[in-house]
Amino acid sequence: MVDRSKFIRESLEESAATKKAILNSCFEDISRAVTIVRDALKKDNKILFCGNGGSAADSQHIATEFTIRLNHDIKRKGLPAIALTTDTSALTAGGNDIGFENTFARLVEALGRKGDVLVGISTSGNSANILLAADKAHENGMTVIGFLGKDGGKLKAKCDLPIIVPSDNTQRIQEGHITIGHIVSELVEMELFG
Fold it and tell me: Fewer CB under 10 Å: which end of the chain, C or N?
C-alpha cells in the first residue's frame, strides 16, 4: 500500500527542486522568450500555442493570460494569442481528413504570418503534430519557441528557442511549463503596459 504522507512530501519536494533547477538552467532562455514575445506583440504580430493533452490545456491557459490578462494591477488591452487546441471542429476535421499529425501545421499555415511566434509545448519534444507545426511556422517566417522537457526531443532542433525543463517526470515538466508561461506572460504585460 502506498504511504500517502511520504508520496505527498516527495512530490512537493521534487516539484520545488525542479523549480530551482529551472532557475539555474533556464533563466536566460526565459528572458529571451520574454523579449521575443514582447517584440512580436509590439509589431502587431500574434502568438500561437499548441500542445497535446495536458500541454493542450497549458496552451489554452497561457494564451488566455495574453488575451484577457494575468496581472490584475495592470489595465491593458487584449493581446493577440491563439491556442490552436480549442477548435474541436478544426481538430476533428483535420484528424479525419488530413491526419491528426498534420492538423496543427494546417492551422499554422492558415493563421500564422511572418513575424508571429509559435509556442510548441511538448514534454517529450517528439509529438509529430508539434514537429510539423514547427516546420510550417518556419516556412511562414515565424519564430518557434519550445516548452520542452527531458532532453528536448526532436523538437529541440526545430526551435529558435528551446526552453527545456530539467526533469524526466512529466508532471514536474508540466508544472514547469505553466510556471514559465506565467513568468513570460506577466513580464510581457509589465514591459508593455506596466
Answer: N
